Amino acid sequence: MGEELFTGVETDRLGLGDLRIKQHPAIFKFTVDPILLAGFVRIRPQATVLDLGTGAGVIPLWLTGYRGLERVTGLEIQPEVAALARENAKLNGLADRIRILTGDLRTPPAVLAAGSFDWVLSNPPYWPVTDHLLPEAPALAQAKFELTCTLRDVVAAAAYFCRNGGRVGLIHLPGRLPDLLCTLRHHKLEPKRLCLVQPKPGALPHRVLVEAQKAARPGLKVLPPFAIQGADGNFSPEMVQVYQGKQLGAGTGDPG
User: Fold this and answer.
1) Which terminus of the chain has fewer CB atoms gathered within 10 Å of its CB, N or C?
2) Which residues, 6+ apart, have CB-to-CB distance to 180 below 8 Å?
């Protein structure tokens, strides 16, 4: 894409506040998933945060622009996508609070030190490459399928970068929850909070949010299911709150 990266980009609203995001037609457009993850985690403004596979920078933008975090680092393997994330940070006046690095989480840049982050987040590729036909667009294929990293790779990197007592937040498919929980524990990341996400009340969950703590004692809190839409087909009041930049679960009995 090179010099054509910012030619023909679309600028869209990100949430219900003032944030905007540029997206390229050849790059996988963001979904609600990183927004759900950004709303799910309970992070102090002063915490150090790393977003693995940051894409166009949705999570760094959301956490700094809406949740008041002072500094978020994003790591992205695709150079053209990382460039777009940097452009989005500039677009929103957040370039001094968002650092976007280009690199592979399996062989990370030397500037990222082990145990140096309070929180590590990821909205990783969901499907093994054998499960479905791959999209023709390379950027889309890498975003959705485990072409450049597996679930184990993501969790291993999260454990490496997270300090002892720090936290890891992930969103994934409910069908892979056993793999996710087992892999977290294998890497000394103890699951602490779990929330199933439904498209609407009564529907089968299609996403799961998990928070784990490094080198912690066992003890998992399962939150009430979170519905994106209400029975009327419109966004649920809780989802509207998330889109406004509030924490997921606010007012639903999860004090954090």
Assistant:
1) C
2) 151, 155, 170, 172, 208, 210
**Token pair for 233:** 């087909």
Q: b or e along 58-70 (b: 16 or more beta carbons within 10 Å of the residue's beta carbon)? A: bbbbbbbbbbebe
Residue at token pair 């930049």: 245
In whole angstroms, how far apart are CA 240 and each of 21, 104, 234?
Answer: 19, 34, 10
Instruction: Show the domains of the chain with their CATH numbers.
Output: 2-243 (3.40.50.150)
In tens, the pLDDT along 12-67 reads 999 999 999 998 877 767 889 999 999 999 999 999 999 999 999 999 999 999 99
Let me know: does 149 contact 133? Beta carbons within 8 Å.
no
pLDDT value of residue 3: 47
Q: pLDDT tens-digit profile of 184-208? A: 999 999 999 999 999 999 999 999 9
The whole-number average pLDDT for the span 4-18 is: 81
C-alpha distances (whole Å) from 5 to each of 1, 59, 168, 196 are: 5, 21, 32, 36
pLDDT digits (tens, 9 = 90+) for 221-255: 999 999 999 999 999 999 999 999 999 976 544 54
